[in-house]
Amino acid sequence: MAADGNLMATIRWQIMKQVEILADKTALIQQALELVLEKLHAAITARGIATLALSGGSTPKPLYEALAQQDLPWDKLHIFWGDERYVPPTHPDSNEGMARQAWLNHVPIPASHIHPMPTDASDPAVAAERYEHDIRQFFQVPPGRFPSLDVILLGMGDDGHTASLFPHTAALQVQDRLITVGNKDGQPRLTFTVPLINQARCVVFIVAGASKQPALAQIFAPTADAMMYPSRLIDPQGELWWLLDREAGQVLG
What we know:
CATH topology: Rossmann fold
Shape: globular
Number of strands: 9
Strand content: 15-25%
Helix content: 25-40%
Low-confidence stretches: none
Structural class: alpha/beta
Mean pLDDT: 94
Radius of gyration: 17 Å
Number of domains: 1
Strand order of the largest sheet: 1-9-8-5-2-3
Distance between the termini: 33 Å
CATH architecture: 3-Layer(aba) Sandwich
């Protein structure tokens, strides 16, 4: 039965994901912009607000810069982060800092609608608990249940990790928390857990560059080790989009 269940999960993943390979990074960012705007407007129409979790790294920065030029109902948008390096927001490696400089500092979004991951506790586990508490309060969900964010943006590293869910780390196994502590080369990070990501209404991977091809080949293979390639674990109850530039996507044929 377990083998049959794994097979069915693999088949479902292959069917439910939507893949688009764009000509170059410019086209990739434009498609990501159009998709994100569509989902945000749909969420606001359906529920009165839209919730969006951001990713870090260099790939989404031009997307954030493009969002800064949009005329959105900023008072209906709430921003979260899917992961964060454990550094102050003023640090050059901060995902929060990058998003603020590229986008959030340039639009009239209420300060209370920006929900960054805290990185000021001496123990990252304490900060993870605090962010989990804040998310549960915002969404009004009790322990044991997972809220549904409207859109979660994700990147993917050359090693197949996403958010701060790195290969063969303890964070991959966490099933009863919204937020946990990830680890990269001994450096702690805060991260959404797999079940929180998988509760989203829409997950969008934005992936660019030829260096991603080996990991993508494994992630899209009929079978592979998800503990080695954590992006395989992302199988949301809502939509799953993979937006790739041509350099990354050519491995998929």
